[in-house]
Amino acid sequence: MPQEQDTLCYKIREGLTKWRDIFTWQLFKTLLMGQGLSALICGTAVTSQYLASVYYLNTPMLQSFINYTLLGITYTIALIFRRGDGNILQILKTKWWKYLLLGLTDVEANYAVVKAYQYTTLTSIQLLDCFIIPVLMILSWFFLKTRYRIIHYVAVCLCLAGVGAMVGADILAGQDQGSSSDILLGDGLVLVSATLYAISNMCQEYTVKNLSRVEFLGMVGLFGSIISAIQLGILEHNEVSKIQWTWEIALILAGYALCMYGFYSFMPVVIKMSSATAVNLSLLTGDLFSLFCGLFLFQYTFSGLYIVSLVVILVGFIMFNTVPTLNRALAPASDEEGCDNHAAEFDNDSTQGCVDEITCAQAEQDQIKSQVNQRQSSCVVINSVKM
């Protein structure tokens, strides 16, 4: 008779258990929400393309100002009505300059990447925009104490290979759009934008995991609206005054603002579930969604490499999230925001296991001491009886 471990049914049950440990509901939820963020990014790209190509409206700061204003109306007002240390006055007293720098970083990152379209090609922007991922991993390593494993580096390389397939499909389909008046300047703006985005995303990950999502969005909305309003008045006041407002332009601007507002609102939620690096990996599919929409809206040419690129990026994203990263130093999260990501749970479980082992060892030592004391007392009683 074969042993139970050697039977086919036992091996299948064991295999299913291992697969269930990998493909959890948490992973599926992270994947689904990450692709939702990509869809919102696609919405901002399509509406911006419409404004630029159909209505010849090139006002990136106006679009950013509307987004930051919406964030301020909702989340900054929520901070005003808070009590205690989470109130906006207490935050401004201690950390105003930090959020000022964060708001400036976020505004200029958005402006630099939009400005780059005037000087370089779409292909260069798609390739160089991936620079955010290695920069973000380096910043997370030093400042957030995140420790990556080999599978994480392999997953990142796989996602970047998917981006390479997407760019190759663009070249083969003849869709290398954009200006090439000053490619060096345009590429430099993309690299600056990617670096600023990496800094902003790292600060966002730290804030939402250790402080509060509402605090991050409220302060970014406050300082972002102020900075973008000043920059709008300086750089784009002529373009804004020349706009001939129609209901179509207003509707497209509203669609862009709602997509960007939804992206900013839900991105901290996904970052808290995984990490900023994982979110940026999922956002690599945003360009693909834009290309798929362009097949119907802008008469792009379809290529089978788009499907290959989408599958490769998704596989790399799943690989990255199947194994948790390790965080060596994490501050306790606030009561409002709940628990940390998988890595924190892994670290907490490990720590709890060590505490349990130490407790058990101490209990055994106490039991042995009590037994020795009982024996010694028994010997004393016997000796006293003999005497």
TrEMBL record:
Protein name: Solute carrier family 35 member F2
Gene behind this protein: LOC107592616
InterPro entries xrefs: EmrE-like (IPR037185), SLC35_F1/F2/F6 (IPR009262), SLC35F_Transporter (IPR052221)
Keywords: Membrane, Transmembrane, Transmembrane helix, Transport
Function, as annotated: Putative solute transporter.
Regions that span the bilayer: 30-53, 65-84, 125-144, 151-171, 183-202, 214-235, 247-266, 278-298, 304-323
GO MF annotation list: transmembrane transporter activity
GO cellular component: membrane
Keyword NAD (UniProt): no
Subcellular location(s) of the protein: Membrane
Family to which the UniProt record says this protein belongs: Belongs to the SLC35F solute transporter family.
Coiled-coil spans in chain: none
Membrane topology: Multi-pass membrane protein
